[in-house]
Design the sequence.
């Protein structure tokens, strides 16, 4: 099986005592299978597809140096699971729906599958089939033209009122940016700028002094807590936009935007780890000691920390990410379930015994891939 041989080839002995070894292959395979079994909501499927892309098909992800992806995929590097899930979503989409799938009232969440849909279109075997491309165009149109916005242009995360959630930053801007990078030219550059502007506007609305972001602002039902997963969504979403701009035809048009995204990601990373507990965990409300330990946000923020370090060469927070990795390793049980997660639907209670977090499962895979890629970079650099 390709996944196994690939993982064996990269899980080499640590080139440096700075870094420990991540999960073993059997565990990763179980975590992945469990993820695919329980991911049902749009944002969970989108996050799952991104995690599979980064874990199994790195060269087709925005964390590689290859762009655009090849139009014909080889036998071995064919993103078969990602493309088939994305294609099924498009085939199941009602003809009168612009969003790819039902978003439970969220604007951004259906767009989270968009990068996988764009990849499926780009690499489709039947070049006469424009249905996937049309679905992507419809989803983009929905975000840019139909969804409600704030007066200054931030796209609402809710359909029925203008409301901004940190979650949005992972769901929509990476799709808008990837769409732009694939199109290229002025049209593509414009979309890269739109993706950046959404990150900028969301930060303007949600960031508090100290650098952490509130979860939800504006409208009815705000959540001004510094939700761990919300901060992870924001940092990880900005990271994907940054990496997409870097790969695009026109990174030099976006020098200041890239510098800003980098510092905004580092701002969250640095603020979050300042509240890390001795065993490596973060709390669900990062800066609230009456909250509880949450492995989901710990895993997602650790993955961002490894990746931004790989990009910038700034290893200040690698020890914190390593401590986080070890608490996550000890939080995945023998059956491949991540324990000690927040319930991703209440945001403020632990998952009930026997129920697990789909996004938490995906964050373990994102963490594994990010840690592996940093090791690989250090190993290759030193070899
Ligand atoms: C995709 O790759 C897998 C191995 O990873 C292979 O078994 C399968 O036949 C390939 N499919 C296509 C359509 O190339
Ligand atoms: C779909 O792929 C084709 C290349 O086969 C490309 O020309 C088109 O722009 C793509 N559509 C989108 C929305 O990326
Ligand atoms: C980058 O961030 C600085 C400080 O927040 C801001 O003044 C500047 O306008 C931003 N640059 C762009 C291109 O948005
Ligand atoms: C880590 O420490 C916190 C207390 O700071 C505790 O609540 C949590 O259960 C610990 N996690 C593990 C996996 O031991």
Sequence:
């Amino acid at each position: 099986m390709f996944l196994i041989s690939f993982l064996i080839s990269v899980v080499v002995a640590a080139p440096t005592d700075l870094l420990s070894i991540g999960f073993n292959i059997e565990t990763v395979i179980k975590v992945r299978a469990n993820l695919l079994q329980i991911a049902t909501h749009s944002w969970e499927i989108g996050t799952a597809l991104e995690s599979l892309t980064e874990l199994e098909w790195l060269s087709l992800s925005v964390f590689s140096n290859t762009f655009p992806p090849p139009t014909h995929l080889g036998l071995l590097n064919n993103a078969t699971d990602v493309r088939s899930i994305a294609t099924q979503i498009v085939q199941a989409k009602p003809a009168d729906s612009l969003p790819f799938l039902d978003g439970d009232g969220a604007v951004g969440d259906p767009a989270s599958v968009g990068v996988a849909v764009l990849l499926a279109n780009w690499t489709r075997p039947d070049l006469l089939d424009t249905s996937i491309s049309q679905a992507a165009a419809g989803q983009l149109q929905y975000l840019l033209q139909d969804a409600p916005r704030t007066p200054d242009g931030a796209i609402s995360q809710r359909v029925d009122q203008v409301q901004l959630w940190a979650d949005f930053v992972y769901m929509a801007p990476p799709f808008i940016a990837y769409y732009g990078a694939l199109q290229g030219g002025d049209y593509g550059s414009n979309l890269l700028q739109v993706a950046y502007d959404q990150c900028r506007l969301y930060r303007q609305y949600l960031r508090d002094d100290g650098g952490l972001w509130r979860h939800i602002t504006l409208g009815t039902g705000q959540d001004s807590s510094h939700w761990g997963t919300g901060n992870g969504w924001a940092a990880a979403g900005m990271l994907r936009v940054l990496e997409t701009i870097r790969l695009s035809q026109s990174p030099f048009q976006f020098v200041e935007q890239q510098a800003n995204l980098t510092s905004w990601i580092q701002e969250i990373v640095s603020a979050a780890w300042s509240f890390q507990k001795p065993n490596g965990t973060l709390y669900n409300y990062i800066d609230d000691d009456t909250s509880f330990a949450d492995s989901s946000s710990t895993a997602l923020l650790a993955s961002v920390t490894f990746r931004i370090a790989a990009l910038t060469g700034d290893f200040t927070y690698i020890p914190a990410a390593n401590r986080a990795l070890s608490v996550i390793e000890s939080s995945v049980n023998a059956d491949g379930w991540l324990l000690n997660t927040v319930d991703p639907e209440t945001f403020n209670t632990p998952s009930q015994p026997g129920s697990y977090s789909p996004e938490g499962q995906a964050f373990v895979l994102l963490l594994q891939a990010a840690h592996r890629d940093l090791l690989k970079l250090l190993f290759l650099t030193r070899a």
Q: What stands out?
A: Residues 2-382 form a domain with the Glycosyltransferase fold (CATH 1.50.10.10). Residues 200, 256-257, 260 surround 2-acetamido-2-deoxy-beta-D-glucopyranose (ligand 3) (CB under 6 Å). The radius of gyration is 19 Å. The longest strand covers residues 164-165.
